């Protein structure tokens, strides 16, 4: 790594080692000046919060980084905003007993019994994406003008309060922007060093303009995006978990700068490196593991379906290689239309042992969203947000990644219910359809609980600042927490795909076809965790076909089951939108496995469940191609979110041979119609040595689930699970 990048990294690490979020003082001020304020609508209280925090939070500029963004806003070091910013989430904390804790109490038994994983959140406070294009092209001043125009036409008192709050909140954020300008001018005046003076003057010039006004350069564009993501999320108490489509948004600014001689390719790459170094520095990824919930999306297509791959795409990918970024997650949208050069760049990063990337398949995810009634002009802007779950940038508020349904656990409960019924299912098809109905009923039960408390979201914790970036929210006069976005969706994810599929297939084989076991007998064997039935367990594992080996009958079986389950959603949520189907695992497959008894596929109790669209770990597959071809019969366009498959490969050579292998794998994945793909190249011997001698293996990077991490920073239980993964 170049010395310049090391200096930036060292400054970030040094500053954040003693970072003071100033939480106690800010919360005290909020108690004194906001909580008892005589206002009628919750938007007004939130706007008062924004004004106070933007006025009172301390600002900091870095000597080596060209950006302005860091504030002491009640947000601790190892957090990304949202509920982790104790000042920004002040209203959430003050009102939690009135709605959040009540929802948590209703779901407590389900969590304890392993049916459900989640928190006291009926809505998703993280994994959101503003309309950065509005910020870049209109600026906050443009948002204010639009809100003023709508306010002048409004007679409804509630909507007037919303528009007035939007104006106040955006003016507060502009005032914060200019505090950075003032600080930069002061530091420039105090310095005797010409390089430092030029550095701070550059920042001052940018902070004088963005995001108040439209960005006029590549540098201003990056400043506006980073400032908004960091500062707005901190004071709004909202997790803005992505920088979104940097290549699509910044390419015109970059090309204009090049033409005018305002920037060089090296200078642009340096700025992108600074952006990546910030995340790794704040979250101390080289010494410990903390989830960053920070993504960049690249590639994809425009509204006409034309593949996007441009100079900024290439520069971001090169920056990842340059600084060996670990945990700014790089999501890459691919399709059959994308050029060979783009796919080769992906292979190059992967071969450098940087599993910080994952791939979204436009050929599947775009039709999946259009199938849900969303428009192409909006769908073409989808981004992976938080990890690899999908949201439409700037037009959709989708609350998800907060609730997971344990499908194998539901199956065990259903089998037990069937075992005591005097007239159980006559055949497997009847059994399967009854199970699907059981899942649907549970889905509706959880949705009803979430809806009851989601209806209170706007009353207790609205987002007028964030909402103002959504054109639909401004035109409707509605906060996004009450249905102001263009698409107001919800997804809670089903979990344990292969564990469920293989278990169902085993029940089909042993109970309904071979009639080797009754339902009662099988239920008891599972309750006993296969004790005394190890021979049977080994027969199940090795003799009954498993998902992931490209066996036609199993492929067709998986396709049918997943198609049936895709129809269990569709309920209306409290914001006037719909629940959409999803199988998104994150790393919840581990804790949910610990709460799940033995399953019919031969898995013993407390063992992790399967991940995403991948086979169970104890299932040996013939080759990576077999796994990918197992996806071919499944219609992934029936699932609106990223249904991710992971391939765990041996370490491949960095030269032409390794690149050819990875390109072949990517092309097979595209041909098979998979939803999303991530790769791990692991040498188990190296991982074992890294666990025994971490000092000598600090740079070994692995893909854990929706994120990457340096192996030695992971908890021992996670290390063991990664080591145990079978070669795919």
CATH architecture of the domain at 403-463 and 471-724: Alpha-Beta Barrel
Show unreliable segments: none
Topology, number of strands = 17
Order of strands in the sheet with the most strands? 4-5-6-7-15-14
Amount of beta strand: 5-15%
Main CATH class of the domain at 403-463 and 471-724: Alpha Beta
Mean pLDDT: 95
- Backbone CA Rg: 26 Å
Main sheet, how many strands, which sense, barrel? Answer: 6 strands, mixed
The assigned structural class equals alpha/beta
User: Per CATH, what is the topology of the domain at 403-463 and 471-724?
Assistant: Anaerobic Ribonucleotide-triphosphate Reductase Large Chain
Specify the number of helices. Answer: 30
- The shape, in one word, is globular
Distance between the termini: 32 Å
Percentage of residues assigned to helices: 40-55%
What do these coordinates show?
This protein is globular. The protein is an alpha/beta fold. The longest helix has 34 residues, at 157-190.
Keywords summarizing the entry:
single chain, 728 residues, Anaerobic Ribonucleotide-triphosphate Reductase Large Chain, 6-stranded mixed sheet, globular
What's this model, at a glance?
This protein is α/β, with parallel strands linked by helices.
Helix/strand layout:
Layout: H1 3-17, H2 23-33, H3 42-56, E1 58-61, E2 68-72, H4 90-95, H5 100-112, E3 116-118, H6 132-137, H7 139-152, H8 157-190, H9 194-207, H10 218-236, E4 242-245, H11 246-260, H12 265-282, E5 295-299, H13 311-323, E6 329-334, H14 340-351, E7 357-361, H15 362-371, H16 376-379, E8 382-384, E9 390-392, E10 396-399, E11 403-406, H17 407-419, H18 428-454, H19 457-460, H20 464-467, H21 471-476, E12 487-490, E13 493-495, H22 497-513, H23 519-527, H24 534-543, H25 552-565, H26 589-594, H27 624-629, E14 644-649, H28 656-672, E15 676-681, H29 684-692, E16 701-703, E17 708-710, H30 716-724
Parallel strand pairs: 4-5, 5-6, 6-7, 10-12, 11-13, 14-15
Antiparallel strand pairs: 1-2, 3-11, 7-15, 8-9, 16-17
Helix pairs in contact: 1-12, 2-3, 3-8, 5-18, 7-8, 8-9, 10-12, 11-13, 12-13, 13-14, 14-28, 17-23, 29-30
């Amino acid at each position: 790594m170049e010395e310049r990048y090391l200096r930036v990294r060292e400054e970030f690490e040094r500053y954040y080692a003693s970072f003071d979020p100033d939480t106690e003082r800010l919360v005290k001020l909020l108690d004194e000046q906001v909580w008892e304020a005589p206002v009628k609508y919750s938007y007004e209280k939130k706007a008062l919060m924004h004004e106070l925090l933007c006025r009172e939070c301390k600002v900091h500029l870095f000597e080596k980084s060209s950006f302005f963004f860091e504030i002491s806003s009640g947000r601790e070091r190892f957090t990304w905003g949202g509920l982790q910013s104790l000042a920004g989430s002040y209203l959430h904390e003050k009102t939690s007993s009135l709605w959040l804790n009540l929802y948590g109490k209703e779901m407590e038994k389900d969590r304890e019994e392993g049916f459900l994983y989640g928190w006291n959140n009926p809505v998703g406070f993280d994994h959101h994406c503003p309309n950065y294009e509005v910020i870049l092209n209109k600026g906050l001043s443009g948002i204010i003008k639009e809100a003023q125009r709508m306010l002048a036409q409004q007679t409804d008192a509630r909507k007037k309060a919303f528009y007035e709050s939007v104006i106040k909140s955006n003016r507060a954020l502009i005032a914060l922007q200019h505090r950075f300008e003032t600080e930069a001018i002061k530091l420039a005046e105090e310095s005797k060093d010409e390089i430092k003076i030029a550095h701070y003057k550059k920042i001052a010039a940018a902070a004088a303009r963005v995001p108040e006004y439209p960005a006029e350069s590549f540098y201003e564009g990056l400043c506006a995006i980073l400032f908004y993501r960091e500062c707005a999320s901190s004071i709004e108490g909202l997790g803005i978990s992505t920088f979104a489509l940097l290549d699509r948004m910044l390419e015109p600014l970059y090309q204009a700068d090049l033409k005018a001689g305002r920037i060089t390719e090296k200078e642009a790459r340096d700025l992108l490196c600074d952006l990546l170094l910030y995340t790794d520095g704040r979250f101390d990824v080289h010494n410990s593991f903390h989830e960053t919930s920070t993504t960049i999306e690249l590639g994809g297509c425009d509204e006409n379906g034309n593949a996007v791959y441009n100079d900024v795409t290439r520069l971001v990918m090169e920056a990842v290689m340059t600084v060996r970024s670990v945990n700014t997650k790089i999501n890459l949208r691919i399709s059959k239309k994308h050029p060979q050069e783009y796919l080769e760049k992906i292979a190059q990063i992967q071969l450098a042992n940087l599993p910080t990337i994952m791939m979204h398949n436009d050929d599947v995810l775009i039709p999946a969203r259009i199938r849900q009634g969303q428009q192409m002009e909006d769908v073409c802007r989808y981004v992976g947000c938080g990890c690899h779950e999908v949201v439409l940038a700037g037009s959709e508020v989708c609350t998800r990644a907060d609730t997971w349904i344990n499908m194998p656990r539901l199956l065990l409960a259903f089998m037990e219910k069937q075992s005591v019924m005097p007239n159980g299912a006559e055949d497997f098809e009847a059994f399967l359809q009854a199970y699907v109905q059981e899942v649907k009923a549970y889905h509706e039960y959880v949705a009803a609980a979430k809806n009851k408390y989601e209806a209170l979201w706007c009353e207790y914790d609205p987002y007028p600042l964030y909402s103002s970036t959504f054109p639909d929210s401004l035109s409707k006069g509605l906060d996004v927490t009450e249905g102001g976005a263009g698409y107001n969706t919800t997804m809670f994810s089903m979990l344990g795909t292969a564990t469920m599929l293989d278990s169902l297939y085993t029940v089909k084989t042993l109970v309904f076809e071979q009639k080797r076991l009754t339902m009662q007998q099988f239920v008891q064997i599972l309750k006993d965790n296969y004790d005394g039935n190890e021979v049977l367990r080994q027969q199940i594992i090795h003799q009954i076909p498993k998902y992931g080996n490209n066996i036609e009958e199993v492929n067709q079986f998986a396709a049918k089951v997943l198609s049936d389950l895709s129809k269990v959603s569709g309920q209306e949520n409290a914001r006037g939108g719909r629940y959409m189907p999803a199988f998104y695992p994150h790393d919840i497959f581990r804790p949910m496995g610990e709460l799940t008894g033995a399953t019919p596929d031969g898995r013993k109790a407390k063992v992790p469940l399967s991940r995403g669209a991948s086979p169970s770990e104890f299932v040996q597959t013939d080759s990576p191609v077999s796994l990918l071809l197992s996806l071919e019969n499944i219609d992934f366009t029936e699932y609106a979110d990223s249904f991710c498959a992971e391939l765990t490969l041996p370490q491949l050579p960095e030269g032409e041979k390794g690149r050819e292998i990875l390109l072949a794998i990517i092309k097979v994945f595209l041909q098979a119609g998979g939803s999303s793909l991530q790769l791990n190249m692991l040498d188990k011997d190296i991982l074992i040595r890294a666990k025994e001698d971490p000092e000598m293996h600090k740079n070994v990077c692995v893909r854990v689930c929706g994120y990457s991490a340096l192996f030695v920073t992971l908890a021992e239980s996670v290390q063991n699970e990664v080591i145990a993964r079978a070669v795919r």
